[in-house]
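Translate structure to sequence.
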């Protein structure tokens, strides 16, 4: 792969006494969707949190757009153009939807054209713009969580299980918004347990096991090879 937008080289991450990432080597290509897959507890969320700077590395390097950001603070990585959507949504329940979005625009006020694009991607946010975020449904909160990362254009989006526990109609809305991000030229690293979504959105795939990347390749190859799926993850996407 030539000139990836994100590269993790031999990254080790500890959380308390636990050695979670054990030499992760990962490249995320530009302008494409890379699916980070694997069974629960293998280090996918820790990989995203390490990439955005929530967790420090014990060893290894993280390069964003060719620049070593291993020691760079999370806020500075955001200013460089990395958006992050955590699994726990990370919204401020006591603030309105508008206030949540305003805080997310790290480079300045929310641009009206960007706001209108977000309204098109997630229509409920227009309806509840002045409402406290805590009053939204679970699916609407997830929309807001993703929209906050989209408050301004980012070069790379790190997104952790955006469709988890959501109704099919909302999953479809989420997938449409992520597909639109891709058409805008954004790069996306996406952790996703819904394999129908993974197959529909993914260009590339990286599979984790025991804190390491154990396979990388085209998403289409993984999606059509049931034996490979079983060997890497102990499951078959054909059953999903």
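Result:
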């Amino acid at each position: 792969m030539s000139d990836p937008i994100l590269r993790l080289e031999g990254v080790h991450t500890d959380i308390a006494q636990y050695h979670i990432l054990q030499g992760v080597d990962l490249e995320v290509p530009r302008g494409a969707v890379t699916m980070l897959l694997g069974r629960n507890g293998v280090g996918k969320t820790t990989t995203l949190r390490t990439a955005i700077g929530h967790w420090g590395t014990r060893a290894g390097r993280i390069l964003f757009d060719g620049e070593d950001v291993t020691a760079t603070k999370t806020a500075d990585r955001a200013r460089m153009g990395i958006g992050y959507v955590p699994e726990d949504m990370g919204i401020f329940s006591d603030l309105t939807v508008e206030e949540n979005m305003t805080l997310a625009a790290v480079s300045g006020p929310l641009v009206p054209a960007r706001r209108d694009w977000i309204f098109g991607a997630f229509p409920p946010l227009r309806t509840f713009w002045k409402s406290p975020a805590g009053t939204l449904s679970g699916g609407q909160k997830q929309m807001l969580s993703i929209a906050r990362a989209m408050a301004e254009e980012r070069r790379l989006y790190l997104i952790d299980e955006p469709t988890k526990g959501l109704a099919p109609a909302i999953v479809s809305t989420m997938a449409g918004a992520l597909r639109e991000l891709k058409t805008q030229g954004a790069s996306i690293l996406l952790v996703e347990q819904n394999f129908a979504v993974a197959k529909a959105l993914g260009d590339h795939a990286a599979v984790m096991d025991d804190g390491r990347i154990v396979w990388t390749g085209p998403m289409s190859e993984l999606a059509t090879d049931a034996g490979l799926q079983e060997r890497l993850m102990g499951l078959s996407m054909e059953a999903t």
